[in-house]
Amino acid sequence: MRAGLRSTGPSGTSAADSAASSSPPPFQLPGKTLSVLPIGLAVFAGISVIALIVVGLVTYERTNLPLPQAFRQRKLAESGANMGYGGMARVDKLTITFLVDNNIEWFGKLPPGFTHELRQHITDHNPPIDPVTGAPTIDFENYCCGAHGFSALIETQAEGESETHYTLFDAGPESRSIARNVAAMRIPVERVERVVLSHWHSDHSGGILAFLRMHREASKNLENAQACVVDLHPDRPIARGIAPGGKIMARLAPDPTFEEIENEGGVVDKHADGHAVAGNTVWISGEIPRLTEYEKGIIGGVRPSEC
Asked: Fewer CB within 10 Å of terminal CB in the chain, N or C?
């Protein structure tokens, strides 16, 4: 149909008039008229109330302890800057070697990017060769052991740089597992710049002194050898123990003291807030407040204020 023309029905009325006359009457409930305006106002008022509640909760969280610290940590992490360390650097390479964990795993399927210790020993560590078959021998004397605790080596290389930074995150529960597993994985101990302790619990701090002794021994003949920095929260507990219902069952092994760390050649560096290390390629969160009710910690766990 050309522009400017109007289509008409058989009786001479326009199509628009026919549509208008045939449209149904407004919807009405028996004895009542449905009004849209009051319903819209009620919905708007409900949304406004919810918005005010959310704003109030956010304001409360930002102004009551311990939540301000959580907001500050998130802001610092998002900006990647804190206390003069500068922004975080992009990395071309990141490798994490798990040195101590609660178990060892050879047969399970790992996610992409992970490799088993077994493959590394067979292919990279020059294992003894069986004279009969010519195949590498699985030498359990030189393999890692599991232990109740955690330790991981973080290797990072900043974008466009050739230097690799080595950061040890936790040191396992005691001296034997960290020493055995560092040797098993052939870690270049002398190149570790910093030991970072996630929190004061002996299953994470128990191997620090042993690692510092290994670091000092491995570095003694190097020119321009650097002391290993030990990154710690300043609030070291006097003691930790397990006392369900107030009855003392056991005391956990003591964490190393600041003085003991220094005596082993470590440089104590205390931090409570987030900060960047390893040439700004590794971010340490600092203390994270426990905000969720389901995280109760160790059942019966206690931290005496005095001993």
From this structure: N
Domain span at residue 268 reads 87-104+144-302
Roughly how many angstroms between the first and final C-alpha of the chain, as a whole number? 97
Q: Is the pLDDT of residue 120 over 90?
A: no
Whole-prediction pTM: 0.68
73 found inside a domain: no
195 located within any domain = yes
Burial class (CB in 10 A: 0-12, 13-18, 19+), 149: buried
Query: Percent helix, strand and coil across the chain, each rounded to 5?
Result: 30, 20, 50
Side-chain half-sphere exposure of 73, counting CA atoms within 13 A: 17
Tokens read off for 116? 């088993």
Query: What is the CATH number for 179?
Result: 3.60.15.10
Split into its structural domains, the chain has a count of: 1
- On whether residue 257 sits in a domain, the answer given is yes
Q: In this structure, is the dihedral angle defined by the CA atoms of residues 209, 268, 202 and 108, taken in order, positive or negative? A: negative
Confidence of residue 12 (pLDDT cuts 50, 70, 90): very low
Asked if residue 59 belongs to a domain, the reply is no
- Cβ within 8 Å of residue 104, ≥6 positions away: 117, 143, 144, 145, 146
180: Cβ contacts below 8 Å, ≥ 6 apart: 144, 145
- Tens digit of each residue's pLDDT (9 = 90 or more) over 121-166: 787 767 888 888 888 888 788 888 889 999 999 999 999 999 999 9
- Tokens representing 136? 């590498």
Which among 223, 193, 235 has a CA at the least distance from the CA of 211? 193
Whether residue 154 contacts residue 186, with contact meaning beta carbons closer than 8 Å, is answered with no
* Residue in the structure block whose two tokens are 């002194």: 209
Q: Write down the pLDDT at residue 269.
A: 96
